[in-house]
Amino acid sequence: MVDQDVQIPTTFDPFAAIDSDAPGAKEYVHIRVQQRNGKKCLTTVQGLKKEFSYEKILKDLKKEFCCNGNVVQDKELGKIIQLQGDQRKNVSQFLVQAGLVKKDHIKIHGF
């Protein structure tokens, strides 16, 4: 028998685990607004790194924007920061200025 170096082409599996160095593997911080009743709305922030102290971030956000808020524990999504009012732009600017998240890792959702 003759030994030949034959390379079998591998197929790309889109559902395989993504390496952290891959371009599509960014962990985004999602900032959403939810309509409550009437003119009232709620801003939610999810996707921050687990190493961060959510309570300290919340304390600074509440003091900076003069609003109330809390940290909610969700089974699937983990910890979520909730703030009163539409604070999407304020929160995104705060996270970038504080150096917690890069600007291209933030997704702002809502109307």
SSE pattern: EEHEEHE
Task: Quickly name the level 1 CATH class.
Answer: Alpha Beta
Q: What's the number of extended β-strand segments?
A: 5
The number of helical elements comes to 2
Largest sheet: 5 strands, mixed
Strand content: 25-35%
Level-2 CATH architecture: 2-Layer Sandwich
Which whole number gives the mean pLDDT?
Answer: 84
Instruction: Find the CATH topology.
Output: Translation Initiation Factor Eif1
Number of domains: 1
Give the N-to-C terminal Cα separation.
68 Å
CATH superfamily: SUI1-like domain
Strands side by side in the biggest sheet: 3-4-2-1-5
| Structural class label | alpha+beta
Helical residue percent?
Answer: 10-25%
Poorly predicted parts = 17-25
| CA-atom Rg in angstroms | 20 Å
Spatial shape = elongated
What does this structure look like?
One of its GO terms (molecular function) is translation initiation factor activity. Probably involved in translation. By secondary structure, the chain is an alpha+beta fold. It has one domain (27-109): SUI1-like domain (Translation Initiation Factor Eif1, 2-Layer Sandwich). The chain is built from 2 helices and 5 strands, in the order ββαββαβ. The protein has helices spanning 54-65, 88-97, and strands at 29-35, 41-46, 69-74, 78-84, 106-108. Strands 3-4-2-1-5 form a 5-stranded mixed sheet, with helices on one face. The longest helix is centred in the middle third of the chain and has 12 residues, at 54-65. The termini are far apart.
